[in-house]
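Structure first, sequence second, as always.
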């Protein structure tokens, strides 16, 4: 008996020790190993782990401020907690009355929304069939919302739009649209179709731009009960977008119980949206941006004509790779795209084209293994899988430069080339440590600009190109007359040999160049 008692006592002691050993271990609804393999990371970083711990804890009601540089895992730092919160809610509230959307992610641009949505989609595709959207499920023999209701075998498909399938609305939790799902709401798409899609398919996660979100908040109370609100790249919300955020973060629109995560609020403008400024978890990424895998260089060309020739030569040698060509000016990048269109297949991602077309090009380019995209800065949120980044003249700021080249961090042997078409004094200080490369020898005959294409460029873009060149050169410090002369030279270098575009008198007065443009015979009668 003593030995039996002793054995039991020892077993209880061991069990107690075992419990103590594992009592500090957190168990999540999502499989972190699968998350790591899906996104090709060895494991979660310390600040990603901490964000997940804070958000998923029912005892810790803190909001979170995250400071993380580009390509440090900042997007996953809020997506992984989002997956956890939503998955837990789906499993716990599977047969209860539908409360509305569960998580809201606010981003500054359509392109950023698409990039985040692509990562959400990547995670959903890694899930078992039973946890994906539209998965078939077996419901109990009674309705937990209304016991007297008859069992439904499945709702009919009533609408299908852009990969979203909308089903007949139910009073209870969706019966045959079970699973983690998401939707992107942003400008460039039909607002009416978005309303129909959201009302019928009821996605768990909403990724939205501020303008379109404000429109939806006026027409829907589905956002009232979100459990988690994230704002990515807070420093980008300026001007009109900042005032929109004031409209969004009201008690009528966002529940005071919803946890908030703000990413890179460098100026502290979002602190007023914290629920309790004294109860905040501040997380800083210990990861550092590494540019070691990106070979950076600057190529100085004598003029725009030589810059154009070098650009097409580089493109001809790298057609088998994935290449992004950037310019600060959407007008300039549009002109380059039009001139190259006859010679190579490429995409255009620019604010100069319709939002729908830009979004389609953005999605298509992201999915391809190779190809060329002519981009204005709105395309900076592209997923980091580009082999070569080409800059037509140096970006205005180091922040823009690093945002562009971070798109190449995910590829080995990737490159960044800055094509400067003016004197070395115009190379900014932040590029002083980047090595200079000589103009490559060879020819770009394969990419000779065809007269027909030049005519089309003149018709569609000549006016805007002239306006952009004049103002750009004046801002660089040139006298007005010299700026106009250099603009004319640039247009001729780009193939505008005859019939130079002209600017209206009203526009010339507005920019302060009426006299100089009149003397150069570039004013419309």
């Amino acid at each position: 008996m003593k030995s039996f008692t002793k054995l039991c006592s020892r077993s209880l002691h061991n069990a107690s020790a075992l419990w103590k050993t594992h009592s500090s271990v957190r168990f999540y609804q999502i499989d972190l190993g699968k998350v790591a393999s899906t996104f090709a990371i060895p494991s979660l970083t310390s600040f990603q782990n901490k964000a997940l711990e804070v958000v998923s804890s029912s005892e810790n009601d803190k909001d979170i401020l995250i400071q993380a540089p580009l390509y440090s895992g900042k997007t996953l730092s809020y997506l992984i907690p989002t997956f956890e919160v939503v998955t837990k809610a789906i499993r716990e509230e599977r047969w209860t009355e539908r409360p509305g959307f569960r998580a809201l992610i606010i981003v500054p641009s359509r392109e950023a929304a698409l990039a985040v949505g692509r990562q959400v989609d990547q995670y959903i595709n890694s899930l078992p069939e039973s946890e994906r959207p539209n998965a078939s499920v077996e419901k109990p023999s009674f309705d937990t919302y209304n016991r007297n209701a008859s069992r439904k075998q499945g709702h009919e498909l009533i609408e299908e739009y852009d990969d979203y399938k909308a089903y007949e609305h139910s009073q209870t939790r969706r019966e045959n649209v079970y699973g983690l799902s998401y939707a992107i709401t942003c400008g460039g798409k039909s607002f009416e179709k978005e309303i129909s899609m959201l009302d019928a398919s009821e996605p768990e996660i909403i990724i939205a731009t501020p303008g379109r979100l404000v429109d939806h908040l006026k027409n829907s109370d589905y956002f009232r009960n979100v459990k988690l609100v994230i704002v990515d790249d807070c420093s980008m919300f300026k001007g009109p977008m900042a005032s929109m955020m004031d409209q969004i973060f009201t008690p009528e629109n966002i529940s005071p119980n919803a946890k908030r995560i703000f990413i890179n609020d460098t100026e502290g403008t979002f602190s007023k949206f914290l629920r309790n400024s004294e109860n905040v978890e501040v997380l800083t990424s210990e990861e550092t941006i590494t540019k070691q895998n990106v070979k950076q260089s600057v190529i100085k060309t004598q003029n725009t004509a030589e810059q154009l020739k070098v650009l097409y030569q580089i493109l001809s040698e790298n057609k088998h790779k994935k290449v992004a060509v950037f310019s600060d000016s959407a007008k300039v990048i549009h002109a380059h795209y039009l001139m190259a269109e006859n010679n190579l297949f490429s995409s255009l991602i620019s604010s100069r084209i319709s939002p729908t077309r830009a979004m389609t090009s953005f999605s298509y380019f992201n999915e391809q293994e190779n190809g060329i995209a002519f981009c204005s800065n709105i395309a900076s949120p592209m997923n980091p899988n580009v082999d070569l980044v080409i800059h037509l003249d140096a970006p205005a700021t180091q922040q823009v430069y690093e945002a562009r080249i971070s798109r190449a961090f995910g590829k080995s042997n990737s490159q960044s080339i800055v094509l400067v078409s003016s004197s070395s004094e115009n190379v900014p200080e932040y590029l002083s440590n980047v090595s200079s490369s000589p103009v490559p020898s060879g020819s770009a005959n394969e990419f000779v600009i065809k007269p027909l294409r030049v005519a089309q460029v003149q018709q569609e873009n000549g006016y805007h190109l002239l306006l952009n060149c004049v103002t750009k050169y004046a801002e660089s410090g040139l006298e007005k007359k010299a700026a106009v002369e250099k603009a004319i030279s640039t247009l001729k270098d780009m193939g505008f040999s005859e019939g130079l575009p002209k600017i209206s008198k009203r526009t010339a007065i507005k920019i302060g160049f009426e006299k100089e443009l009149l003397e150069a015979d570039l004013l419309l009668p």
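Margin note: Confidence is low (pLDDT under 50) at residues 1-26, 135-177, 443-459.
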